[in-house]
Amino acid sequence: MPGELFAVELIEPGPAGPPVLPASVVPLPEEALASWLLRYAAPFGIAPEPLLLGDAEAALAADPDWWRNPDPLIVAAIAGATGISANVILAMSFASWCELGRDDGVPDRFARQRFISPKPLLRARHIGICPACLSDDEEPYIRRDWTLTWAACCSIHRTALVRVCPECGGKLRLRSLKSREFFTADRCGRCSAHLACVPVRLVPEAVVELQRRLIQGRVAGEIVLPELGVISWPVAVALFDALLGIVWLDTRPKSREQFFARIEKDLCCDPLGDAADSAAAITILAWMLEDWPNHMHVATATLRAVRPRRQMQRWPHLVPEVRSKIERILFSAWPDERHPQNRAWWREWIDTLPETGAELRRQAACERIPHRRARLLALADVRDGMPVEAAAEVAQIIPRTLYNWLRHGAEGGLDAALERPRWEYLTELQTKELIDWIAATPPNGPRWRCNRVANEAVRRFGVEITAHVAARLLRRYGPWPRHRPKPKRRLTVAPVYD
Ligand SMILES: [Zn+2]
Ligand SMILES: [Zn+2]
């Protein structure tokens, strides 16, 4: 008898004594508020909203999804009319969830759709159902967690939620609370197909576990991921976006096929398919997080995806603190994007430089050689505590160049930081000699590599030239046909979703 579960709440007396509910319409375990309201109103032949809400409350219920996070006035009105306590009503909504965001309500939040369409389809009320749960029910009803658009499975039966009616192909939706049509939770709203008999698919344990963690963590707003520790929900959403972006953005169908085949083999799950929904997304994430960071490396390699640092350029709208957390997670998982232990070892040099920022700037003002002046100004900014990235931007150079100057300074003192590398000292005559030597090679021989030129410069003149300069000499004066430059790979920026 399901009513017994809520017997305690039912005792609570209202001012005029609680109305006695027929046993068939008491809230059932884990039920969604909307489902209960529909069941409650069904025998009256009136839609739940006009039945239970006055004019004032109806104005607050303009959003058809209001029941996810109901206004206290609405809760009070429903409690008064039905005799069910406010706490029980609130427990059927997501009101206790920390920062209930649109992330939980946007259709297909983690599905491929999110990455390729500029705007979410704002058709809410899509739900998934567990046929096994419905067939166990004496009185069929919709569970609250089935209304999460990113939910993948039923945690009791470990089956994939069914989101599409197998008879008519329509997406399953929760009926509107303004609708007076008779509501039965176990029937398709379009064709009345019986949903409790739909065949079920089992989902991998890892998927059940990840979904359990996500739902459990939503109350506190923090998700515990065994490999990554505790992360807040906004960071988790951005991280999942970034990880799924590796899969969906600028990858070839063939690579994705190969990648999915690996997941299907590892998790022994059904084919993920290229039009993946949120359930497939949770499966992909569960696999990626399972053997972190190895699986992410496999993903990037199999999908021939760009490296994390470039991946992050897809998400220009992220708030800085979320971005820095995502970057820390992704870059620390990536051996050559991770900063070495002795990173910023030059920091001590610049911080303890006898010249202050102002003095470096004064020195720059008297400096006649342009490249020395530019370096003095950039170093002055870092000396004053400006981050290297910002100082590089002011100097209109890439950060790596400024890091090189700092490194040279820390190794050889301020003057070393101001000087250009020694290749600048190839005299005109020496350069001409190298050019003649390069141009004299027979054109049908193998193409030279730049280190051959660099070694020759050291051998002939004792001057080190960079690979970049050597390559430029070869390109310009070598007798070989020119390489056509490779077009830069496209980088799709993800659509903004909030
Ligand atoms: Zn179930
Ligand atoms: Zn149907």
Give a short overview.
The protein is mainly α. The protein has helices at 7-11, 33-41, 48-52, 55-60, 72-82, 86-91, 113-116, 131-136, 205-220, 233-248, 253-267, 278-290, 294-302, 308-311, 320-332, 347-351, 357-366, 370-383, 388-394, 399-412, 414-418, 428-439, 450-461, 467-477; strands spanning 153-154, 159-160, 222-225, 229-232. It contains 24 helices and four strands.
Walk me through this protein's architecture.
46% of the residues lie in helices and 2% in strands. It contains 24 helices and 4 strands. The strands form 2 sheets. The chain has a two-stranded antiparallel sheet. A two-stranded antiparallel sheet has the order 3-4. Bound molecules: zinc ion (2 copies). Residues 130, 132-133, 154, 156-157, 159 line the site of one zinc ion. One zinc ion binds at residues 165, 167-168, 170, 188, 190-191, 193.
